[in-house]
Specification:
The complex is a heterodimer.
Chain A (H helix, E strand, L loop, with lengths): L4 E11 L11 E12 L4 E5 L6 H8 L7 E6 L2 E2 L5 H4 L8 E4 L13 H12 L5 H14 L16 H13 L5 E5 L7 H18 L2 E6 L2 H7 L2 E6 L2 E7 H6 L4 H9 L49 E4 L2 E3 L7
Parallel strand pairs in A: 3-8, 3-9, 6-7, 7-8
Antiparallel strand pairs in A: 1-2, 1-4, 4-5, 9-10, 10-12, 11-12
Chain B lengths: L5 E12 L2 E13 L4 E5 L6 H9 L6 E10 L2 E2 L5 H7 L4 E4 L3 H4 L6 H12 L4 H14 L5 H4 L9 H13 L5 E5 L7 H18 L2 E6 L2 H7 L2 E6 L2 E7 H6 L4 H8 L50 E3 L2 E6 L6
Parallel strand pairs in B: 3-8, 3-9, 6-7, 7-8
Antiparallel strand pairs in B: 1-2, 1-4, 4-5, 9-10, 10-12, 11-12
Classes of the chains: A alpha/beta, B alpha/beta.
């Protein structure tokens, strides 16, 4: 089976401004050597702290940003050679769509809901007639449970949950194979979040749309996604089936992340505190584990040799010398 | 019981708009005891931040306090003169805001911003103010405080900025701290560190804390009691464990069922139907949740609804005629 989307050694470094023309070049390692596979109809959760590179990765995967290394394959075809600007006009564009974080800021305030949903369709898959356009916009609105009476409204006349659904409808209308969602529920109230999550899950089951769900909320990821990928400072530090990772995290960072989530359950374990801030992502030393310095189980080995991402069990990988012990 | 540090009685606040007044708070009442951490929980638009701003006296100009009392250690702060209230704010009661980066002045060093509060409320020679500024930074466990003193907000991470916010709030040793969504926008790992810090400071100094949040799970870990707000009403107040185990108000129960950490399957997660009523309406029912509630009966629409002790459970207060 070919994966829907595959990345091989995907890397994005940003050149840092130099204090003088003679100073050495310094690079911010936003995304470093990421191998990620998403099957058709699969929901993958990408989690990590702010600054870990999850948003950069999601922007590369959705081809809004060019990688500086590695390759990206969509349905077996390389799409990373094409610059992002040209990809935007290619036939592949509609297969990968993005839903952005803040539904208020990502919608043009002067467009009606109808035009917000119709716009991507006009750009990427122009319908033959106005009637066809209306039919497809209404179909997308219905798919996200948006009442058709709202189509003539402007974004400021909608509630937060309705705006989130407009954001999903305009991604959905071009019939994508993969939805990349960057924290789509973080601006929503919990009561509304539930509806949006269930909507995404239904779209995945009924239409076979794969989801790359970027979030820092492991509780939400656990419910929606079958697989979790944890990032730390540009690298994948752990990946595996959601329930397994959640029940028995192998990497110390994942353990800290899970234990830090507030929960209503009485049976919560001891909280692992991470003191200090992550080290700088600018030119990280290559022979040192990037989690060293904050890691509760650090050993002298960790500052001498950087761990590789290695397979622990079937489909379970972790980047730690001591994982699985 | 001793006098509560903060006692809000029947607070009613309107906002004037071009299309008439919006009834943002209606008869809000709650107490916060010494050393207690009280959580105020609600969705956006429920009035939790307005409550905080009313207590601090920093409401915007369109807001009108129609009635009610805000008693701080028995004294009504609404009756204080402007001068006295300005002296009270920051010295006896402080607030930390949601977004630490925008709450700080971007063009002054953090040390200067902490020193400002100290010199405003407790003028002293420069050397002493500097010493107290350093102490304030140490208290919020900022590593290398001498160096951080000269840092500007943009040089610090979100978590460090929020610690500076807490340092400013606590510099003059207030007895009441209002934390308005102090960790929204921070990472969960940073959130845990900040909340642990707030809790330990509260325990060490007997500081009373009002934690305003929409995150029920977060509040349940750190608060002694919870007050649930909906559309400008406090609908239920109870000790945290009791409220989580057995909510009496239908809205509180629904809120609990929408929290992801409590369920194992996505299908068990329940959204709350409907949305907050338009608070401009003049025909709002006595219970503002009635129009979203399955348990509504004729009794719900009869006469004013008040927050009252639950029979046999004196620690719990409830505003509902058909409780669970």
């Amino acid at each position: 089976m070919t994966a829907l989307l595959e990345t091989r050694g995907l890397t994005r470094h940003f050149a840092m401004p130099r204090p003088s023309p003679f100073a050495p070049h310094q690079f911010l390692h936003a995304v470093d050597d990421v191998d990620l596979t998403i099957a058709a109809g699969e929901a993958v959760g990408l989690v990590g702290e702010s600054g870990c590179g999850k948003s950069t990765l999601s922007r590369i995967v959705s081809r809004l940003l060019d990688p500086t290394g590695g390759e990206l394959l969509l349905e077996g075809r390389r799409i990373s050679d094409m610059p992002a600007a040209r990809f935007a006009r290619s036939a592949e564009r509609r297969k990968i769509q993005m839903v952005f974080q803040d539904p208020t800021e990502s919608l043009n305030p002067r467009f009606t809901v109808f035009n917000l949903i119709a716009d991507p369709l006009r750009m990427l898959d122009p319908p033959s007639s106005a009637a066809e356009l209306r039919r497809r916009v209404e179909e997308a609105a219905t798919a996200v449970n948006l009442p058709l009476a709202l189509l003539d409204r402007l974004p400021h006349q909608l509630s937060g949950g309705q705006k989130a659904r407009v954001g999903i409808a305009r991604a959905l209308v071009v019939e994508p194979r993969l939805l990349v969602l960057d924290e789509p529920t973080s601006a929503l109230d919990v009561s509304v979040q539930a509806t949006v999550l269930q909507l995404l899950d239904r779209l995945r089951r009924e239409r076979g749309i794969a989801l790359l769900f970027v979030s820092h909320d492991l509780n939400v990821v656990r419910l929606l996604c079958s697989r979790i990928v944890v990032m730390y400072l540009g690298q994948i530090v752990e990946s595996g089936p959601a329930q397994d990772v959640y029940a028995a995290p192998a990497h110390p960072y994942t353990r800290a992340l899970i234990s830090a989530i507030p929960t209503l359950r009485a049976d919560r374990g001891e909280r692992i505190k991470l003191e200090g801030d992550p080290q700088s992502p600018v030119s990280p030393p290559p022979h040192r584990c990037r989690f060293a310095g904050r890691c509760p189980i650090e050993q002298p080995l960790c500052t001498r040799t950087a761990p590789e991402l290695r397979e622990l069990d079937e489909g379970r990988r972790a980047r730690c010398h001591f994982a699985g012990e | 019981m001793s006098t509560p540090v903060l006692s809000v009685r029947d607070l009613t606040v309107d906002f004037a708009t071009r299309r008439g007044p919006v009834h943002v708070l209606d008869g809000v009442s709650f107490d916060v005891g010494a050393g207690e951490i009280m959580g105020i929980i609600g969705e956006s638009g429920s009035g939790k931040s307005v409550t905080a701003y009313a207590v601090m006296g920093i409401l915007e100009h369109a807001a009108r306090i129609r009635s009610g009392e805000i008693l701080f250690e028995g004294q009504d702060v609404l009756k204080m003169t402007r001068r006295r209230r300005d002296a009270w704010r920051g010295r006896d009661a402080s607030i930390i805001f949601q977004n630490p980066r925008t709450a700080l002045n971007p063009i002054r060093s953090v040390g200067a911003q902490i020193a400002d509060v100290i010199s405003r409320h407790a003028p002293a020679p420069a050397a002493e103010i500097r010493a107290r500024t350093l102490e304030a930074l140490r208290q919020v466990r900022i590593p290398d405080p001498e160096r951080r003193l000269r840092a500007y907000p943009f040089e610090l991470s979100g978590g460090l900025c929020q610690r500076i916010g807490i340092a400013i709030a606590l510099a003059c040793r207030p007895r009441l701290l209002i934390a308005d969504e102090p960790t929204t926008g921070l990472d969960v790992t940073t959130q845990a560190v900040i909340m642990d810090l707030i809790r330990s400071l509260a325990r060490e100094r007997g500081l009373s804390v009002v934690l305003i949040t929409h995150d029920l799970a977060l509040a349940s870990e750190y608060c002694d009691r919870l007050a649930i707000m909906h559309a400008g009403h406090v609908v239920e107040i109870a000790p945290t464990a009791e409220l989580i185990a057995r909510p009496h108000h239908p809205y509180a129960a629904k809120l609990l069922r929408s929290v992801p950490s409590l369920v194992d399957e996505l299908s068990q997660l329940q959204a709350i139907e409907g949305s907050l009523p338009d608070l401009r309406r003049t025909d709002l029912p006595p219970c503002r949740f009635a129009e979203r509630c399955e348990r509504r009966t004729a009794a719900c629409d009869a006469g004013r609804l008040r927050l009252e002790p639950v029979a046999g459970q004196p620690s719990r207060l409830l505003a509902c005629r058909n409780p669970l």
